[in-house]
Amino acid sequence: MVSAPRPARRALSRLASVARFLAAALGLFLAGALLAAPWAVTTAKTEAAFGPHDATYAVTTDGAITVDLGPIGQLVIPAGDKLPLGLGVDVTVEEIPNHAGVPVSTIDELAQDATAYASLFGDIDALVTVVRNGIIADALTRDLIAAGIFTLIAGAYLLHRRTRRQVDAASERDPADGPMTALVLSLAAMLIAIIVVPVTAPKQITPNPVFERTPLAGSEMTGRFSGIIDEVARVVTDYYDDNETFYDTARTSFDAAWVTRPTSPRTTSGADLVPRPNWDQPLAGEKPAGDGTEAATAEAADGGEAQAGGQAGEEPVEPAGVITVLMASDIHCNTGMSRVLARAAQLSGADLYLDGGDITMTGTTAENICVDSVHQALPQNLPRLYVKGNHDSADTADHARSLGWKVLDGQPVTAAGLTFFGLPDPRRTVFPTGDVLERGETGAEFTDRVAAEACAAKDIDTLVIHDPRQATAALGDRCAGFAVSGHWHRRVGPEAYGPATRFVNSTTGGALANALTPGPLKMPAEFSFIRYDAQTRKPIDIQVVTVDMDAHVSFSPWMPIPQPGPWAPAEAE
């Protein structure tokens, strides 16, 4: 047998050496990650909002969530059903940050802070999810860094030993020396890992009965402030109970109204309205008449109603030729409406969630929880599309983008088979102080830019601009055939507007002027279903859902998108 040429043998030998090296490095890395995991978990921390405050959340081993309120005292919450393995979290509440560039009065700031507190207690699960994700990310980062350091140190040591073995190859050695050394190293590493893990005794908690029936059930308030916490907690408890009862009732009312909602005869694509050739003959693969035709007819009769009307708890299937968009706008941190929107998305089988802006009150980082609330409530795989409103900020848009939302910012965006174009509102409004121009651009300049960029984009199915006035030039110049907006807190359309059509959604948060939005509705809230023909990508019709101040839900009839009328642009004066 002829042996392989020497160069080939050398190459195979090098390849085998590289493979052994990589396997050894991977083994060391995995061993380091395993050894460092307890330390990484118990020292993990993250930063997030706590109402309007900045706060630091650090993992402990005392089985309690401890909110340190400084001189006020501590709020101690049992973590048994929230965190595994007896872990806890220390929450250090810090100052309320100043937002440079936004001039507000003290009264305005207090109102914003109250809104942030209300949003926190209105949907505390959203904050829990944000903190949990942040802690997991920090723990993984710490574990990977520690594993990398362990790999480098252990690898350097083993490489040094290998070099010494080669030098001392002629000397007599104990054959058990290698395994014994590895065992000693492993035990030493485990001992170090155990020593550096901070361990504290479980915290003893005396539950305050005032927290019963709230997410803080089983909690204790310490410090001198505990003497007046009963009255404060009653206010919080009443708010929480009212909020939960109202929006649970609204969701149940939505289920009941869904079954009897008005239906539309238009449930197929435009192409299906034109008879195909030989329409009276069966298609290939279809059964001829007489083989189940009656059953098919009965199924269609039953299925047509189920398809259009649906049943609560079922996942309806729109015809393949129809795209359904669930649109909301001007939620203004009313996190209670998140569960109603989620139910609407679930029962309708919506293909896209479209947010027309003003999801927050002032766009502070603390109000990112308002975006989190909607994001976590909606079905996981439902695409989200968002345009910034004047009460949002660039930080709000960045946060939505970090959650995986598609943010309209001057580029065409394709979602659910449709092409959307939009631009963020240039203002940042803090009521009643007024507007701050975040981009240094006036309303008139922005309106002109919307028209110019929309015309340059071409092939736009829907123009999404928060303030409908700032979409008028683009519609008048035929840069878009259909536009949707919010901002006015009242519904307009669908209506013909010059050579195009438009629709203005009302406030989904029931945002009444001079009133805090979180909590039971202060005015009716509305969101909409917009259906598109999947082949032509043209809007077909719109159905508006209204949640009244008594939590009753009603559906409008399907309103067809009107055809644009004759258009004569106004002459310049």
Automatic annotation (TrEMBL):
Q: Which domain of life is it from?
A: Bacteria
Q: Where is the composition biased (Polar residues)?
A: 261-270
In residue numbers, the region (Disordered) covers 261-315
Keywords linked to the UniProt accession? Membrane, Transmembrane, Transmembrane helix
Record carries keyword Ion transport: no
Composition bias type Low complexity, residue spans: 290-305
Q: Carries keyword Transmembrane helix?
A: yes
Membrane-crossing ranges are 139-159, 180-201
Which protein, by its recorded name, is this? Answer: Metallophosphoesterase
**Which organism is this protein's natural source?**
Brevibacterium luteolum
